[in-house]
Design brief:
This protein is mainly α. It contains 4 helices and 2 strands.
Length: about 120
């Protein structure tokens, strides 16, 4: 699935260059959090990473008329993670952003565009 594809892409990265890695997953996706930690254990000696959870933009079988509300909640959580958290810590959010999976990537991408 999406997690395996993302981790496969990351195998080609110089993990020393991107020293601190941050995985942003949707709530309820414990599998991806476990796979990210497993990837870090196998491929990095520094273990400089974190896993952050955001609300899902749309749940499976969710009525379409409710999606604008849940997508907005997800977007605001992404804005908090990408804009306000780094600002309060005086650190940039990221040098590189890899996105995969529409439920998580669309709100993340929109919040990155907001910061441009």
């Amino acid at each position: 699935g999406h997690t395996s594809e993302m981790l496969q892409m990351m195998k080609g990265l110089d993990l020393e260059r991107y020293e601190y890695r941050r995985y942003i997953i949707s709530e309820g996706d414990q599998f991806s959090a476990e796979k990210a930690a497993e990837f870090e254990t196998r491929n990095s000696s520094s273990q400089a990473f974190s896993v952050t959870t955001i609300p899902r933009a749309r749940k499976v079988l969710q009525p379409l008329w409710t999606v604008p509300l849940t997508a907005s909640i997800s977007f605001l959580a992404c804005v908090r993670e990408i804009t306000f958290q780094p600002w309060s810590k005086q650190t940039p959010f990221a040098d590189l952003l890899l996105l995969n999976g529409p439920g998580t990537c669309i709100p993340l991408f929109a919040s990155v565009l907001l910061n441009r």
